[in-house]
Amino acid sequence: MQEFSSSSKISLEAISDGFDEGGRAEAESSEAYLARFRLVGIETLSELVEKHKTYSAVNCIIYDPFLSWGLDVAKKFGLVSAAFFTQSCAVDNIYYHVYKKELKLPLSDTEKFVNIPGLSVLESSDLPSFVYFHGSYPAAFEMILNQFQNLEKADWILINTFHKLEEEVIDCMASFYQ
């Protein structure tokens, strides 16, 4: 783990992805990278929590749902967990409906418009590329869908948005996890 020095009261520490010398370029494939990152990430995040248990309390893990194993580490240590979605709520809502198989993929050639709860009717070409060009990046697509795996076990769900900006879709998504 690399520790970043800072003169502020906030310190940063990185966890390992298992490819500390060259990152993703060291891996044979995207699938191999993600599999190793999961194993090593769980291990090094657990070590980080253990390290801080002795001298400064860790109360919560805020994790990106793309790395859904962050929730597993939080629960392992009895910590509060907060999933932090960094994309717009509209995009998360589309991926959620794909995850729940309510939006069937691949889209047929005749599907010019898509109706997803909480959103205005969309042209199929307005969908995220991982949905519109289904099958283009299988490992990344699996990671996108897995962000909803066990999400109901998170104590908090945070989304990077403004309520007034995405009010209808936020209210729709909030109903999924109440």
From TrEMBL:
Q: Which domain of life is it from?
A: Eukaryota
Which SUPFAM superfamilies does the UniProt record give? UDP-Glycosyltransferase/glycogen phosphorylase
State the similarity comment.
Belongs to the UDP-glycosyltransferase family.
Source species of the chain? Forsythia ovata
Query: Which PANTHER family does the record cross-reference, listed alphabetically?
Result: GLUCOSYL/GLUCURONOSYL TRANSFERASES, GLYCOSYLTRANSFERASE
This chain belongs to the protein called UDP-glycosyltransferase 74F2
